[in-house]
């Protein structure tokens, strides 16, 4: 783009494209074609049909994308972790304070591993990094030790519920949603 905006020799620009962009033409053919069209407008790109390539909004978006990809490669978040914690905490303060009223000031508050009520805390869509499965039968959220299980009728339950209903695989059981009769070995573990 820098070359196209300057008054570089068009042949230089074509040479650059051949060397550096041709290897990507199977993925970005349309974009490369547009850039090739730009060569005809070198030095007066802002008057060309491709003028929107210069729009500052596009460049800002590009800078954001690069930052996001770069931080992704480093395994880091694009937002400051402290900001995220404050935002999620502030959003959930009403829920946490009502739970505190229920639990009171008992010592258990510090030692409990999960909240005493079934109540999903809402971290906002921007913080949903993984899909979440909640079993409709026991309302437990799936974990590594209690994964979602796909039944042959295409309904899904958690592992604990499936083993409970099937007496550990000893009996046939009925799907709670459609009454399909199922044996444990017809079920398939899902990964979320
Ligand atoms: Zn369950
Ligand atoms: Zn079913």
TrEMBL record:
Cellular component GO terms, alphabetical: cytoplasm; GID complex; nucleus
Organism the protein comes from: Carex littledalei
Residue ranges of the TM segments: none
One GO BP annotation of this record: proteasome-mediated ubiquitin-dependent protein catabolic process
PANTHER family (alphabetical): GH10162P, MACROPHAGE ERYTHROBLAST ATTACHER-RELATED
Protein known as: Protein RMD5 A
Top-level division of the source organism's lineage: Eukaryota
Example of a GO MF term: zinc ion binding
Keyword terms: Metal-binding, Zinc, Zinc-finger
Segments forming domain RING-type: 135-178
């Amino acid at each position: 783009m820098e070359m196209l905006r300057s008054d570089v020799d068009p042949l230089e620009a074509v040479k650059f494209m051949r060397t550096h962009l041709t290897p990507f033409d199977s993925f970005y053919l349309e974009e490369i074609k547009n850039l090739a069209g730009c060569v005809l407008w070198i030095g007066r790109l802002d008057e060309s049909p491709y003028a929107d390539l210069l729009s500052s909004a596009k460049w800002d978006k590009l800078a954001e994308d690069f930052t996001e990809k770069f931080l992704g490669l480093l395994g880091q978040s694009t937002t400051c972790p402290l900001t995220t914690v404050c935002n999620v905490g502030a959003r959930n303060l009403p829920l946490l304070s009502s739970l505190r009223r229920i639990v009171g000031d008992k010592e258990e508050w510090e030692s409990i591993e999960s909240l005493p009520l079934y109540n999903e805390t809402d971290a906002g869509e921007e913080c949903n990094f993984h899909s979440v499965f909640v079993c409709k039968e026991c309302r437990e959220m799936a974990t590594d030790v209690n994964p979602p299980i796909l039944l042959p009728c295409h309904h899904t339950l958690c592992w604990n519920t499936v083993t409970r209903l099937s007496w550990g695989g000893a009996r046939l059981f009925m799907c709670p949603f459609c009454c399909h009769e199922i044996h444990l070995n017809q079920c398939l573990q899902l990964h979320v």
